[in-house]
Amino acid sequence: MHQKRAVVKIMNADAESRGRAVRAYGGISAAERRERRRTALLDAALDLLAEGGASAVTKRAVCARARLNDRYFYEHFADRDVLVQALAGQLTADGIATVISATLAAGPDLHEQVRAAADAALGFLVADPRRQALVLASHSDAALQSGRLSTQREIAAAMAAVVRELRPPDPATAPLDLDMTAYAVVSGTLELVAAWIRGEFRCTRTHLTELIAALLLAGTAITPAAPPR
After folding, report:
1. Over 80: is that where the pLDDT of 42 sits?
2. pLDDT score of 222
3. For residue 3, how many other CB atoms are within 10 A of its CB?
4. Distance between CA atoms of residues 228 and 17, nearest Å
């Protein structure tokens, strides 16, 4: 009886040891490995997009570039379009985080904060040509276009939130007015930046930064009367 209990105890200990190995193979947890695979797939998609356009981003090509099989692709994405939308969403989140960090670090002056935001946004794109490729391809593919619209809404919402944080509330301004103004400014700015990347407007990054900052400041100053109800 005691021998049987000892065997069971050893078997349980062995199973627990194997479980730990599954959870933390080579010192890396299962969750970390999943996140690394997801990052590898997104990076591969961004590489392919920059090299060959939206049509180059296929499930097979992404898996080959990331050196992962289909099973790991479907671990994160239902299909190629979901992958592309996730890529746009990830870059949007990273860009917003960069801009907010620069804005908060700029000091109390509103003009300096807005300029820091504009400079950080352009810097985020310029730092990686693949990000510029994503911006330029956002009209060429249905999934990318969906991602572009989501990006505009997310950045506009972030802009409106920052304005509400930095400016005292104005009772004459309807909340919807600020949301719509932010959307208009962000949408126009993204199109302007895309045109600049394509070379349609020949100016320096510094000049473009100042222009975008002026547009953003104009957006924060719009305070129309509340619409009639």
Report:
1. yes
2. 55
3. 7
4. 69
Instruction: Give the tokens for residue 150.
Output: 């989501």
Q: What is the pLDDT of residues 171-213, one digit of tens each?
A: 666 788 888 988 999 999 999 999 999 999 999 999 999 999 9
> Which residues partner with 29 through β-bridges?
24
Neighbouring CB atoms inside 10 A of 29's CB total 12
Cβ-count burial 50-83 (b if 16+ within 10 Å, e if not):
beeebebbebebbbebbebeeebbeebbeebbeb
First to last CA, the chain: 83
For 24, phi then psi, to 5°, come to -140, 70
Contacts 24+ apart (CB under 8 A), 129-134: 129/50, 130/46, 130/47, 130/49, 130/50, 131/46, 131/91, 132/197, 133/46, 133/49, 133/50, 134/46, 134/49, 134/50, 134/87, 134/88, 134/91
Phi-psi region of 107 (alpha: psi -120 to 50; beta: other; left: phi over 0): left
Question: CA-CA distance, 66 to 114, in Å (whole number)?
Answer: 38
Helix (H) or strand (E) holding 29: strand 28-29
CA atoms within 13 A on the CB side of 201: 13
Q: Is 214 exposed, middle or buried (0-12, 13-18, 19+ CB in 10 A)?
A: middle
> What pTM value is reported for the model?
0.78
Backbone phi and psi for residue 25, each to the nearest 5 degrees, phi listed first: -80, 125
d(CA 38, CA 150): 21
